Amino acid sequence: MGTLRGRERTRKGWARRGAVSALGGAAVLLSLLAPPGPRPVPAAASEPAFGSVNYAVAVDESASLAPEDMKAEKAAAARIALGDVSSSSNVTVFGFAAAESDGQRAVDPVCPRTTLDKPGRESVGACVDKLRSRKKSEGTGTDFPSAIRQGVHDLSTGTDPSVPRVLFLLTDGKMDVSGSPKYGDPAHREAEGERQLELELKNAAEQQVQIWPLGFGPAPDRKQLDRIAAGGFQKGCVELPSARPKASKVSGAKDVGPTLEKIFAAAHCLRYERGPSNRPPATLEIGISPLATVGSIVVDKGDPEVTVTYLDPSGHEVPTSGTYRESRFELAGAGGAVEALKIVDPVPGIWKVKAEAPEGHRSLPVGVSVLWQGELRGSITMDPPSPQAGEKTTVTMRLQTREGYEIKDPDDYAGLRVRGELTGDGFAPVALDLSDDGKGADPDGSDGSFAGSVRIPKSAGGALKVSGTLTASGLSADTRSETGQVAPGVLPVTAALTLPDADTHPGSTVTGTLAVHNTSDTPHTLRLSVADLQDGLLSVTPAETEVKPGESGTRKVTVEVAPEDVFGDRLGDDGLRLGGTVTVVDTTDDDRTLVRSPLSVRVTPEPGIWDMYWWAFLSAAVVVVLAVLAVLAWLRQRRTRRDPFGLVLRLVSETGDILGEHPAGHGHKQWYEFAVVEPHRSPRIERRNHGPYAVQRSPEGGAVLRERGGRRTRLTASGQVPLTDSLSLALGEETRIRPPRTRTTRTRSTRWPRPSRSRTTTPSTPTTTPATGEGGSSSTYDSYL
What we know:
Layout: H1 14-24, E1 54-60, H2 67-81, E2 90-96, E3 107-115, H3 118-127, H4 144-156, E4 165-171, H5 189-206, E5 209-215, H6 222-231, E6 248-249, H7 256-267, E7 271-278, E8 282-288, E9 292-300, E10 307-311, E11 321-324, E12 327-332, E13 338-344, E14 349-356, E15 366-375, E16 377-383, E17 392-400, E18 417-424, E19 430-432, E20 449-455, E21 463-472, E22 475-485, E23 493-498, E24 502-504, E25 509-518, E26 524-531, E27 538-541, E28 544-547, E29 552-561, H8 564-567, E30 576-578, E31 581-586, E32 592-598, E33 601-603, H9 609-642, E34 648-653, E35 658-663, E36 672-677, E37 684-687, E38 693-697, E39 703-707, E40 712-715, E41 720-722, E42 727-731, E43 735-737, E44 767-768, E45 781-783
Helix pairs in contact: 1-2, 2-7, 4-5
C-alpha cells in the first residue's frame, strides 16, 4: 500500500495557529487504536494481540527554548500521552530544567501515572497544559541525567517488566548543568554531567527503557540526541532497524503531527502512511492495507469548524461509532482541530475523507494519515515433504493474512525479514536462506513467496522439521513449521498432485489430478485435506482414497469454494486470493506426508448478466447501430435519388419540335415546381413556387410529373407527357454546374417524336431558360459532353 500523493500544503496562517490546533486535537492522535473487546476469529488464526505500553514524557522547560518551541513541545506531549493503541497503557508526564539553587528542583511532575482509558485520556489532556517555560528563579538549565533518571524510575517502578517501556525526551538537545551545584565545582560540572548521563543511559538500557528524543528549536544538538537514543534499550517491539530508537527533529508546531506519528508508529511497531492535504471543501484519499486488523484514520483539520465524513472503499458512508457490516468504529476529537476514527477489522482499500467547512474557516489545509497494526501469516511447505538423507528439498513460505488470503503486493510487507531453520534427528540445526528475489529456488520475485533450498544432512534419520519466522514492523511476528520424515529408501507409495491456479466464483470448483503409485503388496489409504486457511473457505474431495497393491494411476481431485455468504463483505468487487495448502498423507505408513501442494484460488463475485453476456449485448448494440446507419443511408440515398437537381426539362411542340430546355434546380421537399408561360406565342418553362406543375426524380429512372390537383404521371427518359393541348414535357440530357459566364441561347433543330395526339401549333425556336432559385437568382448549366 503506497502513500497517496497529496497536494502542496497551504502554509499561510499555519505557523500562527498550528500549535493551538495541535494542542486542541492532542487527545486523539492514536488513542482509538485499541480494540474495544474480543472478537471471534477464524480457526486458522488467533485473536490479534495489541499489548499495552508504559510511557513517560519528559518536556524541556529550560530557557534555551523559545516560547513558540515550548508551545510545540506541549502539543507534542499531549499527542504522545493521549495517542496509544491500548486502553491499558500507562503514561506519566513531567517537565525538567535544572536545580541551580536551594529550593529548586530539576524535575516538575505534571501528570502522575495514568491509565489511558477514556477517562484517563481526558485527565491527561488537562494536566499537560501545566507545562511552562521556567523563570530564572526556578532554574533554567538543562539537566538530562535527572530527566532520564526520573523517566526510568517512573517506567520501572511497580510495572510489569514484560510491558514495553518508552521514554520520549522533548528538548533542544543542549545539556547545561553549569549552574547546578550538585554536579560539583563549576570547573568540572560539564564533565560530571557527561559522566552521569552515561550512567543513566546505561541504567535505562538495563531497565529495558527505550529513549526516543525529539529535537525542538532552530538548531537542536543532533549529535547529543543521537547519542541519547543509542544509549537506551535497543530492542524494540520487533528486531528490525525501523523499531530501533532514533532521534527526530520537529520543525515547529506545523511539523508536530507528522513527526510524532512517524516516531510513535516506530516505537509501537505501527505502520504509518501519510496521505494528501488540501483546503476544504476537499475529498482526501488514504489506503488501508489488507493486513490491517486495527487502524486509525487521523485527520488534522487545522480548524475545529471543519466537519469530516468517512467513506469506505465501496463508497458507503460509515458511522463514527458502533458496528457497520464487519467493522467497528469509534471517533474521538470531533470538536477539536484533530480527530481520529478508529476502525477494528477495517475494509482494505482506498478510503475517502470528505472535509467541509463554513465560509471563513477554509484557509488552513486539512491533512489525513493512517496508522495501523496487523497480522501476517505464512504457510510453509517442504518439497519433497519426506526427502532422503543427502537429498535437496525446497522450502517455501508464502505470505497470507490470518484468514488465509494471499498477500502479493510488496508494499504490504515492506521491511519484512524471513528467517528459516531445518532441524531433525542426527544433525545440528541448519539455517535456511529464504528470499523473494526470483533467483535460485524462488521462481518469481516480489510475489509474496519466499523460497530456498537445503540439502538434508547424510546423518539425518527419523523426524525432520523446517520452520520459518516472519518479522515486520507493524505486523505481529509469525512462526510456521512443517514436519516430515527422512525417507528410508524407496517409499511404498508415492503421489504427485496437480492443481492449477484458478479464477473462480463462490460455490464453484477447481479440478486437478492426483497421480499415485503403490509398489507394495498391501493397500494404502491416503487422506486429503486443506490446511493454512480459515475453516470452511475451501474443501477437497475425496477426503480419502485407497491405492490398491501394485496400482499406478490417477484420481480426480476437486476443490470446492464456499458459498458467497461465507465470505461476506471481504469478497469485495475485486475478489480475494485464497492461499491454502493441500496435504496428502499416507495413513497406512504412519501418517507420512506425501504431498504438500500450494493452492492459489482467486475468488471473485458471481458475475451478473452483463458480465456473462456483455459480448452478446455489445454485438446486439453493434447490429442495431449498423441497422440504423443502413436505414439512414437508405433514406439519404432515397432522398438524393428523388431530388430533381440536374434534370433537363424539354418543352416539345405537337409536331415534335423542341421549343426550349430548362435545367431543374433543387426542389422544395424534392419537387421542382414550374409553369409554362406564354404557351401560344413563345412558350417556355419558368420556375414557379406553387406552380401548376412539379417534377422529381423517380427511383426507377426518369422522373415523375405532378400536376395541380395531385395527378402524377411517370416520365421516362425517352417518353413525354402532355402539359397542354399543344405542348408536352420530355427529359433532356443531365447537366452539371459550371462557373458563371455570359448567358447564351442555343437553338436545336432536333425533332422529337410526335405525340400520340395530333395538334397544330406555330413552330418556334427552342430557348433555354435558366432555372432560378427561390430568391430569383440564376445558375448557368451546360450539357455533359
